[in-house]
TrEMBL record:
PROSITE patterns: PROTEIN_KINASE_DOM. This is Protein kinase domain-containing protein. GO terms for molecular function: ATP binding; protein kinase activity. It comes from Sphaerosporella brunnea. It comes from the Eukaryota. Residues 1-199 form the Protein kinase domain. InterPro entries: Kinase-like_dom_sf, Prot_kinase_dom.
Length: 199
């Protein structure tokens, strides 16, 4: 029997007028699930490229969970007492690493760049524009699968007008970034430009 790990991704309160990352990410996952791009771990027949989002978790439910489990410690517990807090109950990918954390893997397997770009095209096909397509949000698993994470800046066609050129531009940016910055930086033993710019 396969064990499915889950995590809660917490979103701390934002000042009024600031971008609402929790809502943006949840709506992106709703669109990806509706278009069958984000599939549950039990769906073993399809290629999966986005970890599954089980639900949006409210402050009330988080409080109940924290009361039940003594393992909840640290600043999150204090923040929950002080103000609004919500989270996404997500599938956890325990053996994955980001391209940012392990760029050498991409340099050693440059064909993974094709898979990363193809996965992004699939996400766009579901009507979601990622808007933060950097190596910290691209993950690789031990079996050679690629994953896209962190849709906190995303927009989707269900709620916004997204011109097709935005998706094309995002794909070109990712393709250029991987092939002309990340991979050469590893091979030349230097820091990638995108990383040195602090993007």
């Amino acid at each position: 029997m396969r064990v499915c790990h889950r995590i809660v991704k917490l979103f701390f309160p934002q000042p009024d007028g600031e971008h609402d990352h929790a809502t943006a990410e949840y709506l992106a996952y709703c669109s990806l699930i509706a278009q069958r791009v984000c599939l549950p771990p039990s769906d073993t027949g399809a290629k999966r490229i986005v970890p599954y989002c089980y639900s949006l978790v409210s402050r009330h439910n988080l409080r109940l969970q924290m009361k039940r489990h003594t393992l909840w410690k640290g600043p999150a517990k204090q923040m929950l007492r002080e103000g609004p807090l919500c989270g996404l109950l997500m599938e956890f990918l325990p053996d994955c690493t980001t391209v940012m954390a392990d760029p050498a893997r991409l340099a050693n397997q440059p064909e993974l760049a094709d898979d990363i770009v193809a996965a992004l095209r699939t996400i766009h096909g579901a009507g979601v524009l990622h808007r933060d397509p950097l190596p910290r949000n691209m993950m690789l698993d031990p079996e050679g699968g690629v994953w896209w994470v962190d849709f906190g800046l995303a927009e989707n066609t269900a709620y916004s007008a997204i011109h097709g050129t935005f998706c094309d531009s995002e794909v070109r940016r990712v393709d250029w970034l991987l092939r002309n910055d990340v991979i050469p930086a590893v091979r030349e033993g230097r820091m990638a430009v995108w990383e040195s710019l602090g993007q």
